[in-house]
Write a structure and sequence with these properties.
heterodimer; A: about 400 residues; alpha/beta; Peroxisomal Thiolase, Chain A, domain 1; 2 domains; ten-stranded mixed beta sheet; globular; B: about 400 residues; 12 helices; 15 strands
Chain lengths: ~400, ~400
């Protein structure tokens, strides 16, 4: 008695705009969200760039509520939630009455709030910390704050699986709807850019070390790391009964998903196998073959190892057809937005299927030698796509894949 | 849909590691609350905690370098190893791709960020080195468990603060019911944290000496640390293996107050309990034991009592309800996982652990809290309650599995 899961609304805040249409238009016109990082002191660090959501004003989306208790993660998530709610046509009253829930992916929560709270303990003393700040140090704070802002009284869950958190949250929410545990849920992810995460990613040697903004190009031979970004994206997911009761519009359907893990992150073959297995399981879960997939949204972000592994995994699953399936990757313009990334990919994929245009991989003038992705290009492609496979892969060995279908009203 | 059995439990707590130490400690009402040793509390308004002392990670972390993972990961790996042994699992006979890990936590690996902050404040950031990203993010708790045992199935951390353990177990239950795994390790882990301690102290929620849930003179919680992991598998597979089944997970309820970050209203808690009963398909008077969230703060215990009475009506007075936080302190994201393990043990042994430090009844808390002494009691159905910042509520129901 498995129920179908539909996307009825999309809300997002990104460095490339605050709607799926704007994001898609920016990707298709190769407008970049990446710029020289001026939001904090990065002296002595390797990476000079970040994809920050400039001029984000939460008031614009949340009106006159008291924003003081909301840190940047909570504001980004609450604003994306507002946009998704509006897009899906839910009224605030109905939302509270029907116990609509929220499943939010995030890698860190607000690392900035956590760290600044701790520094206050060290500098001013433990009796001088703010109780309000303390409530925001929990990793689930943004989900809690968004629930208060929008009166979301159903399931309120936070999912942390590193950079795959956003896609994993959508997978988790899909299963709750499938099994009848919920009928409508907001699901997606959020991540804020802050000094603490930037510094430590840089020190770990994971960030792009070039001196130009357009260099973390997925699958490019000269890539050497990713550019950190931020944002939030939430989908309204609903079952059929809820949709027909509301007479709501449908944007797309989530057909299936799977998650896996590669325990040995330094073992190339094992990582490729884990990514391929996860993609294959997602296809089985969606009851489709690789042949049915019309395009792929890759997780690739400019990482030396993981981009190559993903490319080989795609070739493995599509067994000779990978040359024919167009693969896009949106992080050369959007940066690696960690917890938000997978959800932003889904938003972009839904819009791409609707518009019939798949954005090219910006900057991909040249493909790394031997990478089996001959149909990937920096040019936009016309597509008539019914099914998109979305990959999200983390440098810790996390893998998540999701199959989304364009919705035909005749279905 | 598959029925889901609990076939093993493992835990690291301040009153014992592994069920052979933990369960007798619970029944005897032991507690190891004392002055905090993890950091200097000179400048704090309170000084007691329930820390895990003399924990030797080398006993349990055998494949990974125990000192390359954080303390919460060390606890989680130890609890997982003990649970796998308890469930009589032969790891070599499992399909590693079909074994998943679902863990809850409040803080992840807080010592890593605390080390970063120490250096940042001292202007010695260069000493932080490159390890933060490989050691701090909370998802590493599940990741490190999977690495230690080479498990390639779904790997998730659900950091829903003080209700996280229940969330993680509920998720593992869903994963198994939908056939996405053959076996799940599910639980929670948290290590003692300066950030958490300072925050709760500032909220006035920390008791100066001991934790006295539901007592008239209760003064708050005692922050603690620890981990628990449950082995969950389809009941049919457990039966085929011929192993002992502690209990069957039969349902859960998750809800959100949507009202205030730190002040619950009891309505959401009642809703989670009612949903759990519905989800498990049972009537309130069938529940034989409630493991309370019971932090020992004046507000929590009063509101939880009201919520229980709202859901259970007249039968509330007849159902024993106890808080093992009276012994363990509040182990944050691990708490409801340790309490779920206690529910499984209570179901197996038909015994209920007490609420210790109970000396005087509170007119607002008028239920049967199993004061001070463990009790022999037929335990057929247990409800495990957990509440968290963000107005998060989670109730989990387990049932005796007659063979």
């Amino acid at each position: 008695m498995s129920r179908r899961v539909f996307i009825t609304g999309i809300g997002l805040i990104s460095s490339l705009g605050d709607s799926a249409a704007q994001l898609h238009a920016a990707l298709c016109s190769e407008r970049s969200g990446i710029a020289r990082n001026q939001s904090f002191d990065i002296k002595g660090l390797t990476c000079q760039f970040a994809a920050r959501v400039e001029s984000f004003q939460a008031e614009k989306y949340l009106g006159s509520i008291n924003l003081r208790p909301l840190n940047r993660s909570s504001r980004l998530a609450s604003a994306a939630a507002r946009l998704a709610i509006n897009d899906s046509g839910w009224t605030p009253d109905a939302l509270a009455q029907e116990n609509v829930g929220l499943v939010l992916g995030t890698m860190f929560g607000s690392l900035r709030t956590i760290s600044e709270f701790d520094q206050r303990i060290l500098e001013a003393g433990p009796t001088y910390v703010s109780p309000l700040d303390f409530a925001n140090t929990v990793i689930s704070a943004a989900a809690g704050q968004a629930a208060i802002v929008h009166k979301l009284r159903g399931v309120n869950s936070t999912i942390s699986t590193g950079p795959t958190s956003g896609l994993q949250a959508i997978a988790y929410a899909s299963d709750l709807i499938r099994s009848g545990g919920a009928k409508a849920l907001l699901a997606g992810g959020v991540e804020e850019l802050c000094f603490q995460s930037f510094y430590n990613f840089d020190r770990a040697g994971l960030l792009c070390a070039c001196n130009k903004s357009h260099c973390a190009i997925p699958f490019h031979p000269q890539r050497n790391g990713f550019v950190l970004g931020e944002g939030a994206a939430l989908l309204m997911l609903e079952d059929e009964a809820s949709i027909s009761q509301r007479g709501a519009p449908v944007l797309a359907e989530i057909r299936g998903h799977a998650s896996g893990f590669a325990p040995q992150t330094d073992d190339n073959d094992e990582a490729i196998e884990a990514i391929a297995r996860t993609m294959q399981l997602a296809l089985s879960d969606a009851r489709v073959d690789a042949d049915n997939i019309d395009c792929i949204s890759a997780s690739a972000n400019g990482s030396i190892d993981w981009d190559r592994r993903e490319a080989h995994a795609i070739a493995k699953v599509f067994d000779g057809h990978s040359g024919e399936v167009p693969v896009t990757a949106i992080k050369s313009l959007l940066g690696e937005t960690l917890g938000a990334a997978g959800a932003l990919q889904v938003a972009s994929a839904v819009q791409a299927m609707g518009d019939g245009v798949l954005p090219g991989i910006s900057g991909l003038t040249q493909l790394e030698h031997d990478l089996p992705l001959t149909h990937s290009t920096n040019c936009n492609q016309r597509i008539d796509a019914d099914l998109t496979l979305v990959n999200s892969i983390g440098f810790d060995g996390q893998c998540c894949s999701l199959v989304i279908a364009r919705y035909e009203r005749t279905n | 849909m598959e029925r889901v059995a609990v076939t093993g439990v493992g835990m690291v707590t301040s009153i014992g590691t592994g069920r052979e130490e933990f369960w007798p400690s619970l029944l005897h009402g032991r507690s190891n609350v004392g002055p905090v040793e993890s950091f200097d509390t000179r400048d704090y308004s309170v000084h007691n905690g329930a820390e895990v002392r003399n924990f030797d990670p080398e006993r349990f972390v055998l494949k990974l370098d125990p000192y390359q993972v954080g303390r919460a990961s060390q606890f989680a790996i130890a609890a997982a190893r003990l649970a796998l042994i308890d469930a009589n699992i032969e790891i070599d006979r499992l399909d590693p791709h079909r074994v998943g890990v679902s863990m809850g936590t409040t803080s992840g690996e807080p010592r890593e960020v605390e080390r970063f902050d120490d250096n940042n404040v001292a202007n010695t950031l260069e000493q932080v080195g490159s390890s933060f990203i490989r050691r701090y993010p909370c998802n590493l708790i599940a990741g490190n468990v999977a690495r230690e045992f080479s498990f390639g199935g779904i790997n998730v951390v659900i950091p829903t603060a003080c209700a996280a353990g229940n969330f993680a177990i509920a998720h593992a239950f869903e994963v198994l019911r939908s056939g996405r795994a053959d076996l799940m390790l599910a639980g929670g882990s948290d290590s003692f944290s300066r950030i958490t301690y300072a925050g709760f102290a500032r909220l006035g929620a920390v008791a100066p000496e001991i934790c006295q849930p539901f007592d008239r003179h209760r003064k708050g919680m005692i922050p603690g640390e620890g981990a628990a992991v449950l082995v969950l598998e389809p009941l049919s597979k457990a039966r085929a293996r011929g192993v002992r089944v502690y209990a069957e997970v039969s349902g859960y309820g998750l809800s959100c107050d949507g009202h205030h970050m730190t002040a619950g209203d009891g309505e959401g808690a009642a809703r989670a309990m009612s949903q759990a009963l519905d989800n498990a398909g049972i009537k309130p008077d069938e529940v034989s034991y409630i493991s309370a969230h019971g932090t020992g703060t004046p507000t929590n215990d009063r509101l939880e009592t009201i919520a229980v009475k709202r859901v259970f009506g007249e039968s509330a007075a007849r159902i024993p309800i106890s808080s093992i936080k009276s012994m363990l302190g509040h182990t944050m994201g691990a708490a409801s996982a340790i309490e779920a393990a206690a529910c499984a043990l209570a179901t197996l042994h038909d015994q209920i652990p007490p609420t210790i430090n109970f000396s005087q009844r509170d007119p607002d808390c008028d239920l049967d809290y199993v004061p001070n002494l463990a009790r022999d009691h037929r335990v057929h159905l247990t409800m495990n309650n957990a509440y968290a910042f963000g107005g998060n509520n989670a109730s989990l129901i387990m049932k005796k599995c007659e063979s």
